[in-house]
Amino acid sequence: MESDRWVSLALPPGLRSFLPAGKRGAGPTFPADRTSTLGHLLAAAGVPKTEVGGLFVGGEPVDLHYRPQPGDRIEVVEPTWPQTTPTSPPRFVLDVHLGTLARRLRVLGLDTAYETDASDDELLARSSSEQRVLLTRDRGLLHRRALRWGAHVNHQEPDDQLREFLARFAPPLRPWTRCPACNGELRDAPKSEVEAQIPPGTRRCYSTFRRCTACGKIYWPGAHLRRLQAIVDAASS
Q1: DSSP track, the chain
Q2: Per-residue pLDDT tens for 118-170?
Q3: φ, ψ for residue 219 (rounded to 5)?
Q4: Which of 90, 143, 199, 203 is the most exposed place for a label (fewest CB within 10 A)?
Q5: From residue 68, how far is each of 1, 7, 39, 54, 217 by CA, in Å?
Q6: For the chain, which ranges sit under pLDDT 50?
Q7: What sign does the CA torsion over 214, 217, 220, 222 have?
Q8: What is the pLDDT of residue 24?
Q9: Which residue range or ranges hold the Ubiquitin Mut7-C domain (predicted)?
């Protein structure tokens, strides 16, 4: 039979967005060459390995090293949410395009590495050495062999990105414990210790301060608090 010369991937709707436009109605098919691994076929289809929760042939589980046989129909399953992370509490590293999301995660107290000029190789190295989940919208980065822990951020708007992130990982939150600027830990600072470093108007109006133990930046309940508190309240509800 003609179908016996091919291998097909059965993708759930949530993974079809990785396929080329116009080819998302059905799963892709590939010639059954008996040499390509399932990992190679997924990469050729455009589906990152980080977005795959399970692979099955005839109801039996297989892994990315499986070499599909003629006529195989591979069922691809999405990861179960909330998704586990390599460390507890979890640690994350974000690519250069996710700066707003990075700052919001830090406001929520999540250990979030982010540099505005980090290269792809630097992101991969930090993810590996510090066991951080790499968050990115760069699909090519998620296909890199060196990546062990990663997740594709599907949405473009920061509010949607944060909701997606919280649904996927459901991490424990510790709001107001990390510096939004550098990810360092925040500690209460007596007014007497910081008053020489803050504007006169701030000294008159505020008495509660926190200082970053890493970069030394000082924080107080300013005009920005209402906006940030709304983000914290939405994430905590």
Answers
A1: -GGGGEEEEE--GGGGGGSPTT--SS--EEE--S-S-HHHHHHHHT--GGG--EEEETTEEE-TT--PPTT-EEEEEPPPSSPP-SSSS-EEEE-TT-HHHHHHHHHTT-EEE--TT--HHHHHHHHHHHT-EEEES-HHHHT-TT--SEEE---SSHHHHHHHHHHHH-PPP-TT-B-TTT-PBEEE--HHHHGGGS-HHHHHH----EEETTT--EE---TTHHHHHHHHHHHH-
A2: 999 999 999 999 999 999 999 999 999 999 999 999 999 999 999 999 999 99
A3: -125, 150
A4: 199
A5: 17, 7, 10, 15, 56
A6: 1
A7: negative
A8: 82
A9: 8-76
Q: Which amino acid makes up residue 91?
A: R
Backbone angles phi, psi at 104, to 5 degrees: -70, -40
Distance CA(55)–CA(74), nearest Å, equals 7
pLDDT value at residue 1:
42
At which residue do the structure tokens 């700066």 appear?
A: 99
